[in-house]
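Anyone up for a design puzzle?
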């Protein structure tokens, strides 16, 4: 059976990833695919417990290296339990965040650097790479405003506290934002950058165009 196709969505919280990943999954279903949708941190029983620890604002004093190690523990579990089995079964995997997030948030935001993140990815994740990464990068100001508003609503409606990162200062997010741009510049063959304060429909159109083009090319290569 041909191996599946691995797509990740990246960007700051508030960039619209959740909305777009759901729309992309629906579009793929209309074309006969059965996408597997997951997220990081989370997506497995163990991963959800890690997510609760890492994102809870009460997790004060968590050392940057410990934070990064938890992200990779979550990722290793997701690869073993969800991502690799789905790809082996020929399915399309849509993942909300992957190692690019760790490079941006811990490597950039926490100033640990890219080298340690990429080396851990090689060791812990068997160097599995997305076939396509869709990087949503609205302005920093718009992303932060939406993320903080969303987390306040989630806290009020569902009683979840997942705003530990949103309490960081703007300088932290500026480093994350700039690291994402660095990743896009470094890997243009994998990363499609969708930049600017676009409407939901405009972002969706760009995503569908990129996915249709890349998956068509992939299918043609397999047939050849």
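Challenge accepted. My sequence:
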């Amino acid at each position: 059976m041909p191996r599946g196709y691995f797509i990740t969505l990246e960007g700051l919280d508030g960039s619209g990833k959740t909305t777009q990943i759901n729309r992309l999954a629906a579009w793929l279903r209309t074309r006969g695919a059965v996408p597997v949708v997951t997220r990081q941190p989370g997506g497995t029983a163990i991963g959800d417990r890690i997510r609760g620890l890492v994102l809870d604002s009460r997790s004060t004093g968590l050392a940057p290296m410990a934070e990064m190690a938890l992200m990779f523990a979550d990722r290793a579990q997701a690869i073993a339990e969800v991502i690799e089995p789905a790809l082996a079964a020929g399915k399309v995997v849509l993942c909300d965040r992957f190692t690019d997030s760790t490079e941006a948030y811990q490597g950039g935001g926490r100033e640990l650097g890219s080298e340690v993140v990429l080396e851990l990815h090689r060791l812990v994740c068997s160097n599995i790479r997305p076939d396509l990464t869709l990087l949503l990068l609205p302005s920093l100001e718009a992303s932060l405003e939406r993320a903080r508003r969303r987390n306040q609503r989630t806290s009020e409606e569902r009683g979840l506290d997942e705003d530990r990162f949103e309490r960081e200062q703007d300088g932290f997010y500026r480093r994350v934002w700039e690291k994402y741009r660095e990743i896009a510049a470094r890997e243009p063959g994998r990363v499609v950058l969708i930049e600017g304060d676009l409407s939901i429909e405009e972002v969706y159109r760009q995503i569908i165009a990129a996915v249709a083009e890349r998956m068509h090319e992939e299918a043609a290569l397999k047939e050849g």
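A detail worth pointing out: DSSP finds eight helices and five strands in the chain.
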